[in-house]
Design goal:
The complex is a heterodimer of chains A (114) and B (111). Chain A is mainly beta and 114 residues long. Helices cover 0% and strands 55% of the residues of chain A. The termini of chain A are far apart. Chain B is mostly beta strands and 111 residues long. In chain B, 0% of the residues lie in helices and 50% in strands. In chain B, strands 2, 5, 6, 10, 11 and 12 form a six-stranded mixed sheet that branches. Chain B is globular, with a radius of gyration of 13 Å. The termini of chain B are far apart. Classes of the chains: A mainly beta (114), B mainly beta (111).
Chain lengths: 114, 111
């Protein structure tokens, strides 16, 4: 089955530690995205990548970093510089079809930093 | 840039009631419009989409029509079920293939 996997589902870290969230897709999609979701809020774009070895900052990139060494993988590192890292993180991928992009989401990783 | 405003929840309905969740957008050009649904503890699932004016997206009894004149994409369902309880997000396509989301509307359907 094609899809997007994110691991782990729950992640706990101490303040001051960097942590990397995994995102893998086997949909052969070119573009991948990371969003952050806070309670009562919509999703906010952290980083996106439209092609391997290239990525762009989204609206809230500060305190985060990414890499895109393979088409299938787009890991997100939450650094100690992120002021409020506790959130639900969602990875998505998309492919252009008929001039528009349709996004598919992974199940998410809930990160708690104490 | 593009933006989305959707009605705030929570919305509580009885089973078989009619559902409307309002969504309006601001955008340059004619972006695609989407409704996503999120069940507790899960990621988002695409519910329906519309890619041009007057298109009607539909899925699982839900419908939404792309109204350019009112810049709206309201979600409707004629008869909701308990299993429809979830958070619904309206989204508009951005310039980089990303999506811009509304804040979400939580729907609770009581038996």
């Amino acid at each position: 089955d094609g899809g997007i996997t994110q691991s782990p589902k729950y992640l706990f870290r101490k303040e001051g530690q960097n942590v990397t969230l995994s995102c893998e897709q086997n949909l052969n999609h070119d573009a991948m995205y990371w969003y952050r979701q806070d309670p009562g809020q919509g999703l906010r774009l952290i980083y996106y990548s439209q092609i391997v070895n290239d990525f762009q900052k989204g609206d809230i990139a500060e305190g985060y970093s990414v890499s895109r060494e393979k088409k299938e993988s787009f890991p997100l590192t939450v650094t100690s510089a992120q002021k409020n890292p506790t959130a639900f993180y969602l990875c998505a991928s998309s492919i252009e079809a008929g001039g528009h992009y349709e996004q598919y989401f992974g199940p998410g990783t809930r990160l708690t930093v104490t | 840039g593009n933006s989305v405003t959707q009605m705030e929840g929570p919305v509580t309905l009885s089973e078989e009631a009619f559902l409307t969740i309002n969504c309006t957008y601001t955008a340059t050009g004619y972006p695609s419009l989407f409704w996503y649904v999120q069940y507790p503890g899960e990621g988002l699932q695409l519910l329906l989409k519309a890619t041009k004016a007057d298109d009607k997206g539909s899925n699982k009894g839900f419908e939404a029509t792309y109204r350019k004149e009112t810049t709206s994409f309201h979600l409707e369902k004629g008869s909701v079920q308990v299993s429809d309880s979830a958070v619904y997000f309206c989204a508009v396509g951005g310039s980089q293939g990303n999506l811009i989301f509304g804040k979400g509307t939580k729907l609770s359907v009581k038996p």
